[in-house]
Design brief:
56 residues
Length: 56
């Protein structure tokens, strides 16, 4: 209840975006492999951003 108005950190936002992209890449892997690879590449870039933020 008290976390209702708590703002998400940048890492939390990026993690949610990463999770969403990985789910989409997995779903597309059975339909369109090139789109799946593109989503996986986007997720990899977000993963690198998360690592950079955590190292600071």
């Amino acid at each position: 209840m008290f976390g209702l108005f708590k703002k998400k950190s940048e890492v939390d936002k990026l993690q949610n975006q990463y999770d969403k992209l990985m789910k989409e890449a997995h779903r597309l892997s059975t339909v369109n492999r090139s789109d799946s690879d593109q989503k996986y590449a986007e997720a990899d870039e977000i993963s690198k951003k998360i690592d950079a933020l955590l190292k600071k």
